[in-house]
Write a structure and sequence with these properties.
The structure is a single chain. The chain is an alpha/beta fold and about 375 residues long. It folds into two domains: about 150 residues, VC0802-like, CATH 3.30.2130; about 160 residues, Vaccinia Virus protein VP39 (Rossmann fold, 3-Layer(aba) Sandwich), CATH 3.40.50. The chain is about 30% helix and about 20% strand. The protein contains ten helices and 14 strands. The strands form two sheets. The protein has a seven-stranded mixed sheet with strand order 2-3-1-4-7-6-5. A seven-stranded mixed sheet has the order 10-9-8-11-12-14-13, covered by helices on one side. Helix 3 packs parallel to helix 4 and helix 5 packs across helix 6. It starts with a strand and ends in a 9-residue tail after the last strand. The mean pLDDT is about 95. It binds S-adenosylmethionine.
Length: about 375
């Protein structure tokens, strides 16, 4: 079967790299999504092993849909019964881009009618009293991709973040920042504006190969899914967790409430012993270590800071960085003159923090010139 993996805009290439590292051969699907071939074992694996993906879906079919009749007639032909049982509670969500059909509520109700017709022809009457099946009918240029969501809630939900910080990053985006950096567990790591701790918690989870097994997934509730498969995949993934590491990473935040939150989340994620959260102004950060990496998400936007405060914080950030020996710095922010304030020419990559366009700035120290 064809499994479709979605990730946030700008993160697709990182997810693709993760898939390749897991041994898959990803191919491009529509709207920046990626597809791989596989079975239920892979559905389980992808849901728990990918750090940057937002959802894992099964493709039920691709059909022509330039009129409502065509949509209905083609939808009735798809084999929902392979996955949906007699009591399936069916939730249809519609999207349409550059297509003749664009009235989403009509697409939704016609799609649901077609799916129910197909299933009642097979099972008899349906009562929808069972587990949820979320089906996305995604029409692009008059072709509808019909996708069954196996994840349920977005995969950024790891199960450890139960309290909400000031302006937290999604866990999937925080993971992408780590993958896009040069950091590995043999180098020092610090987040000087750690907030509720997301970047550091995800960095430790990645370094120690901790899977996303501390949450629920929709496919676990389906009669058509064999739980034994999940147990095996889960046990295998958990047996790979590195437990004998002396990894230590550091988080600073000026706000004591954020530090409390970060400690609470780290404990829930099972990574407390690897992270030291310190309630200090980042201006006090020093380190005698070399080749360290900073990955940070400083405040931006008027809700958190005035422009005057931004200027002061970002300039101070640059000064702190200058005092470090041979470190790299990565910073996600919507502040467009970051390089001016920080005082270094950086590379930048466009990402989205939710709907907000941001840049991921990176500064790597120049390589020493080799003497011949
Ligand atoms: C955008 S939030 C970081 C959110 C974090 N990435 C998360 O996922 O929760 C920015 C953080 O910078 C902190 N901050 C602001 N000024 C600071 C300073 N001078 N030193 C250290 N932290 C500071 C704020 O308290 C806030 O928690």
């Amino acid at each position: 079967m064809k499994i479709i993996i979605s990730s946030a805009s700008g993160v697709e290439a990182v997810t693709k790299r993760e898939l390749i590292n897991l041994g898959y051969e990803p191919t491009a699907f529509i709207n920046g999504k990626t597809s791989v071939n596989g079975g239920f074992v892979d559905v389980a694996k992808l849901n728990i092993l990918l750090y940057t993906a937002s959802r894992v879906e099964i493709e039920l079919g691709q059909i022509k849909a330039s009129t409502f009749d065509e949509l209905y007639d083609n939808l009735v032909k798809l084999e929902y019964e392979k996955f949906l049982d007699k009591n399936a509670k069916i939730i249809v969500n519609a999207k349409s881009v550059m297509s003749k059909l664009f009235a989403l509520s009509s697409i939704q109700s016609i799609s649901k009618k077609a799916i129910c017709t197909r299933l009642s022809n097979i099972y008899g009457s349906l009562d929808e009293s069972g587990s949820e099946y979320k089906i996305e009918v995604n029409i692009y240029k008059d072709i509808a991709s019909v996708l069954l969501n196996t994840s349920g809630e977005g995969l950024h939900k790891r199960g450890y973040r139960t309290l909400v910080g000031e302006a937290p990053l999604k866990e999937t985006l925080a993971s992408a920042l780590v993958f896009l950096s040069v950091w590995n567990k043999d180098r020092p790591l610090a987040d000087l504006f750690c907030g509720s701790g997301t970047i550091l918690i995800e960095a430790v989870r990645i370094a120690l190969k901790m899977p996303n097994t501390n949450r629920d997934f929709d496919f676990l509730h389906w009669e058509t899914f064999d739980m034994q498969i999940f147990e095996e995949v889960k046990n295998q993934a958990e047996s790979q967790i590195i437990t004998d590491s002396n990894l230590k990473v550091y988080g600073y935040d000026i706000d004591v409430e954020q530090i409390k939150l970060a400690k609470y989340h780290a404990k829930k994620a099972g990574v407390s012993k690897y992270i030291e959260f310190i309630n200090k102004d980042m201006r006090e950060f020093t380190s005698s270590k070399t080749r360290g990496v900073i990955i940070s998400n400083p405040p931006y936007g008027e809700r958190l800071c005035t422009r005057k405060q931004i200027i002061s914080i970002y300039r101070a950030f640059g000064r702190v960085f200058n005092s470090l020996n041979d470190w790299c710095c990565y910073c996600i922010t919507s502040v467009t003159d970051f390089e001016n304030l920080f005082g270094k020419k950086c590379k930048k990559r466009k990402l989205y923090n939710g709907k907000l366009e941001v840049n991921y700035f990176s500064y790597l120290p120049p390589k020493p010139v080799q003497k011949i």
